[in-house]
Design brief:
Blueprint: H1 11-29, E1 39-43, H2 49-57, E2 62-67, H3 70-82, E3 88-92, E4 105-111, H4 120-129, E5 131-142, E6 148-150, H5 154-169, H6 180-186, E7 190-201, H7 206-222, H8 225-230, H9 236-248, E8 255-266
The structure holds S-adenosylmethionine.
């Protein structure tokens, strides 16, 4: 497991991932559903936040969800059990060295993981190996360059920029969404289609103000506080003002915009 994995494996991050998945499920998953009897691989399932929706949307398929972190898999197992879901099994595995025969799965699903991997094309090739011919891969990623908000202050933009810089310093790619097409094409997937999924939030959408701006986005920025200050990217005073200002986008006169990307390719 990477010790420097940018979001970390804290309790707070586990809660953030579940909040994020719940809030974004209608936007990202309304069209993710697999036929009865399909064998599905979910790669990098984390604490099972997406697994929940996958399993509910495709209740008659068999899902194998893997992750490199055992504590995350334990949390995922409890979450799925608590919902009474029976069509998922969890397994510890590294995406780069998958313990499955060639062409085992009908479909592969991977969400918010490629951005953390040092060699995303190699990861896609590894996933392609275990996918059957004619099977599909679904990849979902954010792109932190696609974010803007109102009101916009210099400090809020600096705090946001810290998230991007901290991820870059850890060899992650905070601008992954815009690269999905070239990466999937480079890995040899066919019929690649990328669909931008826009989140626009204002106070007419209170569930997104709370679930997206506060619990997903600001929680994610707050998560890099120590790394950002420690690396000298920002001073404490600017950071605190930046976070306070970011919260203003969640007030009645604030607005927030972010773009996710959902890509599908066929082997
Ligand atoms: C941001 S989390 C996303 C989790 C989940 N897909 C979601 O959307 O909530 C990234 C996950 O990828 C996992 N991961 C990172 N590198 C991995 C690798 N090489 N093999 C398997 N899992 C990996 C991490 O352990 C972490 O659980």
């Amino acid at each position: 497991m990477r010790e420097d994995y940018v979001h970390g494996y804290s309790e707070k991050e586990a809660i953030r991932l579940v909040d994020q998945a719940k809030t974004l499920a209608p936007l990202l998953h309304h069209d993710t559903s697999y036929p009865e009897g399909s064998m599905i691989l979910e790669a990098g399932c984390g604490v099972g936040a997406q697994t929940l929706t996958l399993a509910k949307n495709s209740s008659k398929s068999e899902i194998t969800s893997v992750d490199i972190s055992e504590p995350s898999l334990n949390q995922a197992t409890s979450l799925i059990k608590s919902e009474g879901i029976k069509n998922v099994k969890f397994q510890i595995a590294d995406i780069m060295e998958l313990p499955f025969e060639d062409e085992t799965f009908d479909h592969v699903f991977i969400c918010f993981v490629l951005e953390h991997l040092p060699d995303p094309v190699e990861a896609l090739l590894s996933l392609k190996r275990v996918l059957k011919k004619g099977g599909s891969i679904t990849v979902i990623e954010g792109d932190h360059g696609s974010c803007y908000f109102y009101p916009e202050t210099e400090e809020a933009v600096k705090a946001w920029q810290c998230l991007i810089e901290v991820q870059k310093n850890l060899d992650c790619n905070p601008l992954m969404g815009r690269e999905l097409y070239p990466l999937l094409a480079q890995a040899g997937f066919k019929k690649v289609q990328i669909d931008p999924r826009i989140v626009y939030v204002d106070s007419t959408k209170p569930e997104l103000v709370d679930g997206f701006i506060k619990k997903t986005i600001i929680a994610m920025v707050e998560g890099v506080k120590e790394q950002a200050i420690g690396a000298g990217l920002i001073d404490l005073k600017t950071w605190e003002k930046g976070i306070k200002d970011l919260h203003k986008s969640a007030e009645p006169s604030g607005t927030f915009f972010y773009n996710f990307f959902k890509g599908i390719g066929i082997k």
